[in-house]
Amino acid sequence: MKIRVAFNGQEFTATLYDNPSARDLASILPMDLKFVDYGNNEKIAYLPRKLTEEGSGSFGNEAPGDLCYYAPWGNLVFYYAGYRYSKGLIRLGRLDGAIEPLLTRGEFPVRIEPAN
Length: 116
What we know:
Layout: E1 2-7, E2 10-16, H1 20-27, E3 31-38, E4 42-46, E5 66-70, E6 75-79, E7 89-95, E8 108-114
Antiparallel strand pairs: 1-2, 1-8, 2-7, 3-4, 3-8, 4-6, 5-6, 5-7
């Protein structure tokens, strides 16, 4: 499934993986959240409820452009720089294009919805 993410006059798409957490995210779209910068390598947005952790586990080849869910905090994570897997992180998908929209610093309202 593809999703569209819009904030600060910018828009990008991401492709969700076929896993229980990604399907759970898709089931609660569309939604309006707030992007917040965190850790100089990611934007996070807190979800209205926690997603299922079924099927979670460690993964490798982490890369900018990954879309993840951090289960302990209940937030989406959009990585725009390198990172390392940590316990509780579930990869949900990947940005379809360049990460440049995520480089805009600050807090912004964000709309996440299914892409047509």
